[in-house]
Amino acid sequence: MSNDFVSVRYIVDDVAASIEFYTTLLGFTVQRDARPAFASVIRGNLRLLLSGEASSGARAMPDGRQPVPGGWNRILLVVSDIAAEVARLREAGLSFRNDVLKGVGGSQILLDDPSGNPIELFEPAR
């Protein structure tokens, strides 16, 4: 495996649905498919590890806590036209946690994947 990847692990409810979501709607390609337990998808130098309940990444901690999807930590995907991306993804029936927020660095919105993991779409200020 290349050391050129930045890897992020997401706990997901359904590996197959997650592969479909990330490859069809967000431009990732499959690097490894070990359904139903695990898959890795890549976009640029980002490697996203999709860990289903049968994967080692989803095993309970020694104190009994169980990794679950969701939360607020997220990957950030840079887009060139946030309005067009939001319209395209809403047309595909996807849900967002908020509306586009504009700040000094640019515009952002939070999209949920099929398991409720957040993805930030970010358009840098021009």
Describe this structure in words.
Helices cover 17% and strands 36% of the residues. The protein is of the alpha/beta class. It has one domain: 2,3-Dihydroxybiphenyl 1,2-Dioxygenase, domain 1 (Roll). The protein is globular and about 45 Å long. InterPro entries: Glyas_Bleomycin-R_OHBP_Dase (IPR029068), Glyas_Fos-R_dOase_dom (IPR004360), VOC_core (IPR037523). It comes from Phyllobacterium sophorae. Residues 4-124 form the VOC domain. This is Glyoxalase.
Index terms:
126 residues; alpha/beta; 2,3-Dihydroxybiphenyl 1,2-Dioxygenase, domain 1; four-stranded mixed β-sheet; 8 strands; globular; Glyas_Fos-R_dOase_dom; Glyas_Bleomycin-R_OHBP_Dase; VOC_core; Glyoxalase
Brief rundown of the structure:
It comes from Phyllobacterium sophorae. The protein has two helices and eight strands, in the order E-H-E-E-E-E-H-E-E-E. The mean pLDDT is 95.
Compressed to H and E, one letter per element, the order equals: EHEEEEHEEE
- Mean of pLDDT: 95
Q: Which geometry do the CA atoms define?
A: globular
The helix/strand class is alpha/beta
DSSP E strands, number: 8
User: Which consecutive residue ranges, at least 5 long each, have pLDDT under 50?
Assistant: none
Would you tell me which CATH topology applies?
2,3-Dihydroxybiphenyl 1,2-Dioxygenase, domain 1
Helicity, in percent? 10-25%
Query: Which strand order does the major sheet show?
Result: 1-4-3-2
Domain VOC: 4-124
Protein name: Glyoxalase
Pfam families: Glyoxalase
